[in-house]
Design goal:
The protein folds into three domains: about 210 residues, Jelly Rolls; about 50 residues, no CATH class; about 110 residues, Malonyl-Coenzyme A Acyl Carrier Protein, domain 2 (3-Layer(aba) Sandwich), CATH 3.40.366.30. Helices cover about 30% and strands about 20% of the residues. It is built from twelve helices and 16 strands. The strands form four sheets. Strands 1-9-6-11-5-4-2-3 form an eight-stranded antiparallel beta sheet. A three-stranded antiparallel beta sheet has the order 8-7-10, with no helix packed on it. A hairpin with a 4-residue loop joins strand 13 and strand 14. The radius of gyration is 25 Å and the shape is globular.
């Protein structure tokens, strides 16, 4: 299924959604994805959960050593044969990175900037499976892939959670609305809306039991604490000067920190803690494109590619199809004259057309790229290839 220019908001326009619903109120969209193809089978999802470097979790509501027991992958294949027939869930995060073909679904959400999309998570559950009533601090689109799931939500709730369980589950959740979602239906939830999704017993058109699979497209929503800490760290790496007394005075008491000293430190801190737009722009691009969580996997790709020279890369371009690494995030921002390209937590000064073209699609339009590349762009392209950020398709 081609998700280019795909409208998944039903009869609601993108503008209306962003103005009236985004970060404001829930929205149920029936048949948002008609004839949605299979992204992953249950067997493929379970196989993914057995691999190293994959963030996979099992939630057992009743069959564990305690209620709502949480287990982390990677799992042994035998673990799945030991599970009960009801009341458990398997959740796998960052599916679009480990199975790049699933990333196509994210194109349907390009009314949200790429840097705001966090990941594609897919869950599988037999009847009764859920992760309990909970609250997320970010926007999420919940897409029913197969089977049925009952969603209950509440916008006015007590934030008291259950004690002695592995998850943050609301203790006294009382739903205000509920909807039964079928394959292709989608529920949008803004931050801080309590919700509880419960897999249902369901028979498909062939009268076969069909368990529940749900895709979750979550948005990036870092806390102010996290952003401030990272920005200060970014600035501190660029500072090399040390404290100096500009106008030393004899202290009235040897142990006193005077008001003049405090004022002097305020002025010094202002110099270091700049909010100059170009600095913030460069930091933000590096922050949003960071791939430290997948650094080992990215390095494995880089090590499998030889440290080639520019002439060799030109030969590769002519013979092979190249694409962005699934573990890399490509973003850009315009400057006064050119652009900053952000990849894997680094920034590169490139031409605007180069930045737009290389960020446009996962499969890189090399022919178009060659038409716009400057000599400096070619060197950046070579660096990204040798670094494993660009790989052979």
């Amino acid at each position: 299924m081609n998700f280019d220019n795909f409208h998944c908001l039903g009869e609601i326009s993108t503008t209306h959604f962003l103005e009236q619903y985004w970060q404001k109120k829930p929205l149920l969209i029936r048949n948002a994805f008609p004839n949605l193809p299979t992204l992953l089978t249950a067997e493929e999802l379970a196989g993914l959960a057995c691999e190293e470097h994959v963030n996979a979790r099992l939630v057992l509501e009743k069959a564990g050593n305690k209620p709502w027991q949480l287990e982390f992958g990677p799992f042994d294949e035998s673990r799945f044969s030991q599970l009960p027939t009801t009341n458990w869930s398997l959740l796998v995060s960052d599916v679009e990175k480990h199975c790049p073909e699933t990333k196509a679904l994210l194109k349907a959400f390009r009314f949200i900037p790429d840097w705001r999309i966090d990941d594609l998570m897919i869950s599988y559950a037999p009847p009764g499976g859920s992760v309990g009533a909970h609250v997320d601090a970010y926007d999420v689109f919940l897409i029913q892939l197969c089977g049925q799931r009952l969603w209950q939500i509440s916008e006015k709730f007590s934030d008291e959670t259950l004690e002695d369980v592995d998850l943050h589950i609301l203790k006294n959740f009382s739903p205000e609305h509920e909807w039964l979602l079928n394959a292709g239906d989608m529920l949008y939830l803004p931050p801080n809306v309590a919700h509880h999704g419960i897999a249902q017993a369901y028979k498909n058109n062939s009268d076969q039991n069909e368990n529940c699979m749900t895709a979750s497209v979550g948005s990036r929503a870092p806390s102010l604490k996290t952003m401030t800490s990272d920005y200060v760290h970014y600035l501190s790496e660029k500072l090399t000067t040390r404290y100096q007394d500009k106008k030393p005075l004899i202290p009235t008491h040897h142990a006193e920190i005077s008001d003049d000293t405090v004022s002097h430190f305020i002025n010094e801190l202002k110099k270091g803690l700049t909010l100059e737009p170009d600095q913030v722009k460069r930091w933000l691009g590096q922050y949003c494109s960071d791939n430290k969580a997948f650094e080992d996997l990215a390095n494995d790709t880089a090590n499998s590619q030889h440290d080639i020279k520019l002439k060799e890369l030109i030969d590769i371009i002519q013979k092979e199809t190249l694409k962005q690494s699934p573990y890399s995030q490509f973003l850009f921002s315009n400057t006064d004259t050119d652009a900053l390209l952000f990849v894997d937590g680094e920034s590169h000064e490139v031409s605007r057309e180069f930045a737009k073209t290389i960020c446009d699609e996962t499969i890189i339009n090399v022919k178009q790229l060659q038409n716009v590349m400057t000599n400096a762009d070619r060197n950046i392209f070579l660096y990204l290839y040798n670094n494993g950020s660009i790989i052979s398709a």
